[in-house]
Amino acid sequence: MTELIAFDQLNYSRPNGKSCAEQLDFTLSAGERIAITGSNGCGKSTLLQLIMGLLPADGGDVRLFGESCYKANCLNEKMFRRHRTRIGLVFQDPDDQLFCPTVIDDVSFGPLNQGFSACKAHQKAMATLNLLGISELAECVSYQLSGGQKRLVALATVLAMDPEVLILDEPSNDLDLENQHRLVEILQQCQLPLILVSHDPQLRSKLVQQEYCLKNGKLVQLTPQKMKLPDVDKSMIRGGEYT
Ligand SMILES: Nc1ncnc2c1ncn2[C@@H]1O[C@H](COP(=O)(O)OP(=O)(O)OP(=O)(O)O)[C@@H](O)[C@H]1O
Q1: Residue-by-residue DSSP string for 45-82
Q2: 42 lines ligand 1 (CB under 6 A)
Q3: pLDDT in tens, 159-169
Q4: Residue 226 CB less than 6 A away from ligand 1
Q5: 17 Cβ below 6 A of ligand 1
Q6: What is the ipTM of this complex?
């Protein structure tokens, strides 16, 4: 199977001494949807930042789409930059993702950066806001949104770029039931390879085939075999219980 994201003997410790990766090997291949769990502060978000080259590893390698992103133990920014736009990372804190004056500016930013015209970028942004059921927020000031609204807009900024892989850090935090349903439905339908960091077992069971626990810098596989994903449920948005 085609390798999308891989850690090869990765090492990383935070300045406070917390080891988040210790000789860590891991591969996400095409078609795979996995979850990472683990106790607060064990380093899950840190691993996601290492995937994107937002933090320099202490040792080892990160490979994206089969290409090594470290050269002689140094982070190769050029290589990360080549592949970053192919991976959609939604941060745990939406305030890390939203930096433009309005929602439409934030969601158009990625497509504009990818080289789309202003008109096409606006179209893609509006289509994504529609998909998420939040088109009415388009002209709102991003920093004045509620926590749940910010989280949906942060997801929109990533989906608008048509990523090849999704990495989501606690995507259901702050969402009401209707929006949790919508999130699940959209993520089931898009069928992109996925790394999901979530403390919510129900969300994980609906979206991933395999679960890992990060402990002492190692990813321990919790599910011996790939789990069958539930069939895509198109009836669950708008009302109803999140079961
Ligand atoms: N910007 C930072 N600078 C220094 N240390 C940090 C920073 N962000 C996180 N840490 C430290 O890194 C360690 C791992 O944090 P991280 O956010 O990756 O954990 P997590 O597993 O995602 O936790 P949670 O489940 O609470 O979201 C913690 O000890 C944390 O204090």
Answers
A1: HHHHHHHTTSS--SEEEEEETTEE-EETTEE-HHHHHH
A2: yes
A3: 999 999 999 99
A4: no
A5: no
A6: 0.97
